[in-house]
Amino acid sequence: MKIIGLLLVPLTSMVVLWGVITAVTAGESLELRQYKTVWTNLRLPAYKLISEIQRERLISAQLLRNVADESAVAAQRTKTDAARDSFTQLSSTIKDRSEEIRTQVNAVYTQLDRLDSVRGEIDAGLSDRLHSVEAYNSVIDTLYGLHRKVALIDDIPIYEQSRVVIEMGYARELLSREQAIGLGTVDAAERRLFTQIAGNRRFLIDQGLGELDPALRDPQVALISSPAYQRMRMMEDQIIAGGTPQGWLSTTEGLAKSFNEAQMKASTLLNERADPVADEVLSRAFLLAGTALALVIVSIAFSLRMGDRLSKELGALRLAALEVSQERLPHVVAKLRKGEKVEMPELSVASTTVEIDDVGQAFSTVQQTAVEAAVGQAQLREGVGHVFRNLARRSQTLLHRQRIQLADMQHRATDPEQLDDLFKLDHLTTRMRRHAEGLIILSGATPGRGWSRPVPLLDVARGAAAEVEDYQRVVIEPMSGQRLAGTVVGDVIHLIAELIENATVYSPAHTTVIVRGEGTARGFAFEVEDRGFGMEPEELAEYNERLASPPEFDLADSDRLGLFVVSRLAARHDIRVTLRGSPYGGTTAIVLIPEEHVAEPEPEAPAIAVQKEPAARPMRVVRSD
Description:
The protein starts with a helix and ends in a 26-residue tail after the last strand. With 625 residues, the chain is α+β, with helices and mostly antiparallel strands. The chain is built from 16 helices and eight strands. Strands 2-4-5-7-6 form a five-stranded mixed sheet. It has a three-stranded antiparallel sheet with strand order 1-3-8.
């Protein structure tokens, strides 16, 4: 599935890339065609509206100079309103195509709504000539801002020419502003504005002519080089100098009309250029999309075929590796633990891929190395076990001889202090014997200590306490008279002694360790309780897991020899050892001995009437093997 996933990622990316390329390329064509739609429904009505507002501005300026009557102004306002209604109706069908178009169209709507207030101020005589002209200028500037924002196209030549044509149209707008200001005598403020507008218009024309292509530039050059334009330039200079030239309106009116016709012609020509480009882009899109689709199909087929073959080979390699890890190696390790000889066949994986074949050979080498390591570990473990066993046996022999000598010395000793020292040595010898038995248990062998007859469980507890250094702190509570099978007595004594010693080591010296025992439905249970600092729940869980499932002995983990010995002894006789928290804050170890190892109490002998004798003097008994 991962191989399929790895294949799907690039294949999906290719399909998505193909779709994106197709959509982008087709989108370019559609956008080029949209250029025509935007021209028809938005820019052309905007140009018509600009022309009407320019005429209304001019006739309003004439009205303020008392050279036009109100009927002419009303007639022009009617034409302007008709152009505004036409623009509003057509722009509403296209303004929602993009957020940018919507923003610009709404800005134009806001300015158009101000026309009525501008007219009202003019009619009421509240606005002078300059203020009225600037009010109309604000509306027209917004319309030209609309042209600049929506005349975007992904064809750079068309876009560049369209931008220049719009700026040339704005130069015509500046000429119209000059017309309105230059009527009659101008004051200082009007002269300053006129000078600024004339300079901007000349700059735009000079700059735009150098950027237009020949088809669009020639009509503009013809106008610029005409006698009427040269005469208009002279009149501009006169107005800037403070004069009032004759024939200003008639001269500029003809030039404005010619400039407007040249601009409309250039805009229409650019609009017609977009259609062939759109068709070419669309054809290129279909060709590119078809080629890319063919490549995608070939890539998918090839990738799926290679992926299927690689998946089958990897599946075979996976099965072989699982067989090695889950069946072969565990089986080999189990046989090695039993001391049997093993033979490991080589791992063979049929593959046509060199890398997978190399991995198969590597697995075979790893398998052989793992077997050799397991054999070496088994031999090392067996050797360590032999060393432990030999050392422990030698120590046991010496300790046995030492205990015999101590027993003889105890019988011959008469000084109480010497006798007490001999008892301490005897106790120390008993502890050393337990540690020697621990080495035997670590080696995997069985200690030689054992009993032929059942032993009372109370004596088992006492014997375990006697093998601990701080035996004075151990309190053994009374128990029932049940007995423990002699074959397990030695191991149980050792097990409980390890638990008692652990309790004395990890609890304060002034506290006691309680050992109690009672029969259960499934055997007999010992409890070893200390009043130390206890253990965290995580630590308790870890120790209980080790006690339930004895791990392999690790030579490096020498700090937990006691725990390992306890778990080994418990597993040997199916004894369950559990650690839990004590109500006193310490730890309680519970040892549950199965019922097959527990015998009923020894029946009491019948009472026989005997002559009453004096009470016997208490004796101290030293037990031995």
